[in-house]
Structure formats: C-alpha cells, structure tokens
Amino acid sequence: MTFDVHAFRAREFPWAEAGEAIYLDHASTGPLPQRTRDEIAAFGLKRAEPFRLSNDDYFPTFERARNAAARLLNVSPRTIALMSNTSHGVNLAARALPYGPGDVVLSVHGEFPANVYPWIIAARRRGAEHRLLPLVNGRPDEAALMHAIETDPRVKVVALSWVSFWSGYRFDLAAIGAACRARGIYFVVDAIQGLGPLTIDLANTPVDIFACGTQKWLLSPWGTGFTYVRDELISELEPEEIGWASQASSGDFGRFLDYDPTFHDDARRFEVITLDFVHFSAMAESLGLFLEIGPQVIADRVRLLADRAVAFADAHPEVALITPVDPAQRAGVLSFRTVDVPATSERLRLGKVTHTVREGCIRLSPHFYNTNAELDAALELLLS
Ligand SMILES: Cc1ncc(COP(=O)(O)O)c(C=O)c1O
C-alpha cells in the first residue's frame, strides 16, 4: 500500500495541510492526530460524567495501550509497564537493577538529564561510580565505549539514549547490547528520541530496559509512555515504588483486604496506578496509527527527509550539519549550526517553522507526514 501523504494530512493533521504551520519539532512535542483528538474528546466526556463509564473503559484501556506498545517493539505485552514518561522508566532501572559499591554505571556526555540525574543519585546512594565518557569532536566515542564494556569488569550497567536530543547521534543498540549481554552487563536505553523515526525488534535486540515517553515522536498526549523490561529480568527486579495494583491479588477486586504482597509476575509490577485512562486510550489510538501505516513505512519516510537535509547541508557550506551524515548514525533529529543562530531562528519563526534551538544549534525534527516542500522551505531559511 502506498502512503498518500496529502490524504493522510487532510485527515489527521488538517492544520498542516492548510499551511498553518510547518511543524518540525517532534523532538520536543508531537502533535495529536485527529483520531487521537476525537478519542480524547469522546472519552473526556465520559470522564467528566463518570456514570457514563463502563468497565471496559478502565483496565481494558490499559491493555489496549500495552498491546499496541508491545506490537511496536515485537515483544510480549507481559514485558510492558505503562508509565507516564521516560524518566519513570530510567528511575526504575537506576533503582531496581543490582549494582553496588565499586561498580560502574557507564554513559556518555551529552545525554539528556532524564538519563543522568537518576543515575547520579542512585550511584551515590550505593557507592557506585557514574561515569560519563567524554565526547570526541562533539560525538560519542563508540570505540571507547566498547573498550570499557569489554575490558573494565567493574562496568555493571550501560545507560544510553538511542538518539541524542541535541545532535541526533544514534547509537548502534544491537552492537552495544550484544557486547553488554556477553558480559552480563545491564543495558538500559532512553528511547524517546528514537522510536517512531526508527523501528526496533526487541525480541532480537539485547536491551534489558527500554524507557519511552510517547509525547514526542509517537504523537501521544503528555503523561503517557511505557517501559519494556526483558522478560527474564522482571521477576528478578523488585520495584522501589509500590502501587496497590502492582500486586497480583489486585486483579481480583474482591480480595483488596487480603493484603497479599505478591507482585505481578509481569511488568505490571512496575506500574504505580491510577494512570490517566483518557490519555492512555489516546496513546493507544496514536500507536494504532503507527501500526496501521507500518512502522517501517514511517521510518523510511523520516529517513528520506533526513537524507534531503543532509544533501542540503552538503551543498551549502555556510550551514554546518552537526548530526552525523551516516544514515546508520542518525534518525529524525537534525541539528545545524548556521552563521547566526538567533537570526536563523527568528527567520524560521517568521516563516512559521516550528523548531528549537538546542546547545547553540538549530534543531529540526521532521516526521513522516511532513512533505519535501515543507522541509525545503525550512532548509532555505537556514541560509543567511
Ligand atoms: C533523550 C530524552 N530523554 C527524555 C526526555 C524527556 O523525559 P520525560 O519523558 O521523562 O519527560 C527527553 C525530552 O524532553 C529527551 O530528549
């Protein structure tokens, strides 16, 4: 099936098709597709007048969201914990994984703080070392990272963002994960800037914990996300935060007062509910859209847009592309240094191009429904 971008935009993002904005800021906040907005409106009405809610609106909503996330990752729904953002998943990893005095949690400079502070604090509390490898020429040094994994027996955890929020650098999860797995090192991934523009098959990629907010590239409401925990690891990890529904007995609403502290044997043990049913229902709609179009179709379109930006920077020396040229090392985040970044940003703003300035660079983050014409218009505005 070919993807008709204009028909899609007219249906799901009419404001984009009408030219109200050129939205190239998915690395900040994803817009909500029309179907998701409709779901929020319909469910929101029921929420406001709860006598209209049925049992089906409660826990089955979470199962729809969980199933959609699991399909996107090619894993069992057992391994998915619904969470309100990425940071909860990173905290789960930092607080529940077994590492202790003298052990090293390895990461790199340039990480978004969501994948830094939880580790600094958790490592300090345990007498472990949180080590950030320096960037080399503004890029993570994957060879140095691999060397540390392969030669330093104190490394117990590796924690990385799949794709950098500012440079767009993409790590090779399969290679790093395989090196970690071979040495019994836990591999934790902050996936929020990767999933959507990229696909992943976690059944065949050695990642232990994969935390992903869905509010950006997955076009879902704020306060929604999920964390995958490798199945074999689930029963080994005791949640630090305990909710009334992390216990298996809570499945039976007739047994509340048994106080049976036996965790679920699946990733629901890491959920601390009540989560927002309205917005998780909306998230299920948005993820459903990815599954319907096809995650690979979406990834291919983002890749073509990024290729176009790379070719543009190549043809215009006054625009320096910070993001790697190699398609294997990038995704949807595209970062540029221009002659005068504040002036460029103002030009983009006047041209109705939604973008962000990060780390002194212009960040454009196009998604699959953006058109070549939209991207070209934005790229032209990078020129002084
Ligand atoms: C790499 C990365 N991790 C995490 C986040 C956000 O974390 P959370 O979903 O917990 O708000 C962002 C963006 O804000 C990000 O770019």
Description:
The protein has 384 residues and is α/β, with parallel strands linked by helices. It folds into two domains: 5-31 and 294-380, Alpha-Beta Complex (Aspartate Aminotransferase, domain 1); 50-292, Aspartate Aminotransferase, domain 2 (3-Layer(aba) Sandwich), CATH 3.40.640. Helix content is 38%, strand content 14%. It contains 13 helices and 13 strands. It has helices spanning 5-12, 14-17, 34-48, 59-73, 86-96, 117-126, 142-151, 173-182, 231-234, 277-293, 295-315, 341-350, 372-380; strands at residues 22-23, 80-83, 104-108, 129-133, 155-161, 186-190, 209-213, 225-229, 320-321, 334-337, 353-354, 356-358, 361-364. Strands 2-8-7-6-5-3-4 form a seven-stranded mixed beta sheet, with helices on both faces. It has a four-stranded antiparallel beta sheet with strand order 9-10-13-12, covered by helices on one side. The chain has a two-stranded parallel sheet with strand order 1-11. Helix 6 links the parallel strand 3 and strand 4. Helix 3 (34-48) runs antiparallel to helix 10 (277-293). It is globular and about 70 Å long. The two termini are 41 Å apart. The model has no long low-confidence stretch (mean pLDDT 97). Pyridoxal-5'-phosphate binds at residues 85-87, 112, 114-115, 161, 165, 190, 192-193, 213, 225.
